[in-house]
Amino acid sequence: MANLDAHLIDRFIAYLTGAKGYSAQTQRAYRSDLIDFMQSATAKANKDSAELTLDDIRDWLYSVAEAGAAKSTVARKSASVRSFTSWLERQGLHETDLGLRLRTPKSSRTLPKVISREALAEVFETLATGAKTLEPTKIQDQVIVELLYATGMRVSELASLGLADIDFARKLLRVTGKGNKQRMVPYGQPAAAAIEAWIKYGRPKFQTDQSDDSLLLSSKGKPVNVRVIYSVVANLLANTPMGSAGPHSLRHTAATHLLDGGADLRAVQELLGHASLGTTQIYTHVSVERLKQGYQGAHPRA
273 and 237, same structural domain? Predict the structure, then answer.
């Protein structure tokens, strides 16, 4: 890829950071997609960004799909390049916005995995037993799972949570989500008790002079990263009938259990930080599916 194109991608990513407030994770994904795309176009005809055509984009997306990428991956890569071509046109670096004529692949939407209440009860019992030892790591594990299930927050949101984001009196968290948007989410007494134990018995043992305000800390006093949280949850769920699953399953489960319990759909949307109500509505499908399964298993004329 030409240095000129690499410089343009850097400028574009800087625009996503400053003007759009995209998360670091999204920025990395977009950068990776665009580097791959430009390398593909360069390898084919040694083109720079000003010489790109719609066929170049279509050929690249076709090759990605042919390589076995999931529909959701192809859809994301399409979104990356369409955002880039729109920016190129607005910057006067390309005569037209090529992405306007690009048909967006529809990503297949599957029903999310939901952890049963029985399986969750076993997980929380295991966590409570571990936390009673007052071992810092065990106490923090309990905080991680309690908060993910209590609030339905994303793993990245939990990892970035600071002590100043906690309103202990009202049991509220200030969560910073996608696009740097903030929202207030409530949590219950079990999560409150876990946080209290962590701050009293666990966090002081990990905290160092260099530690920042982060709620969760590693044994070296540094903020816990997303991979650690993923590993904690995945290992716990691996011992349940759920099997292989990650932290996002707790988000799905929290939303589904709220709707099963009669929560308002818009309230769940606000809790999860969804920009669109349509994104939240997938959980109503899960609830209806669970209702049908219960009906078919219990009604004599189902």
Answer: yes
